[in-house]
Amino acid sequence: MDTKRDANCGCSKEADRYVSFSGIDCNGNARRVMALIEKYLTECGQDEPFWKYFINKRTPRSGPVPDDLFLVHSHINQIRELFEAIGNEEALALLFLLEEECC
Asked: What does the alpha-carbon distance between residue 90 and residue 6 come to, in Å, rounded to a whole number?
């Protein structure tokens, strides 16, 4: 996949996390991935134990709340499987971009 940023990112150069995270919206892209997960789980009534665990982990009853980037990074394979199962190519592309640039 090409790591060049699209016109919506506000930058025109190629992003390279090994040089600088400048211009890479890791937190914003992680929020977008999480929004896609929540939308799918809400629409489809996903009832698998893993996804209950995942959502509960995002909003714990005690202790620190993990940020979205950490959760995506920690469970990237399960998220990829979810997006593949629902056939959402745009979500997969966003997940790949996030993985390449930020994880």
From this structure: 13
Model's pTM, two decimal places?
A: 0.77
Write the burial class of residue 62 (CB in 10 Å: 0-12 exposed, 13-18 middle, 19+ buried): exposed
Convert the pLDDT of each residue in 32-69 to its tens digit. 999 999 999 988 877 789 999 998 898 889 989 899 99
Give the start-to-end residue ranges of the domains of the chain: 25-102
| Gap between the Cα atoms of 39 and 57, Å rounded | 17
74: its two tokens = 């920690």
Give Dmax (Cα) for the chain: 42
DSSP assignment string, 71-83:
HHHHTHHHHHHHH
What is the DSSP code string of 9-45? GS--SBP-TTT--TT--HHHHHHHHHHHHHHHHHHHT
Length of the chain: 103
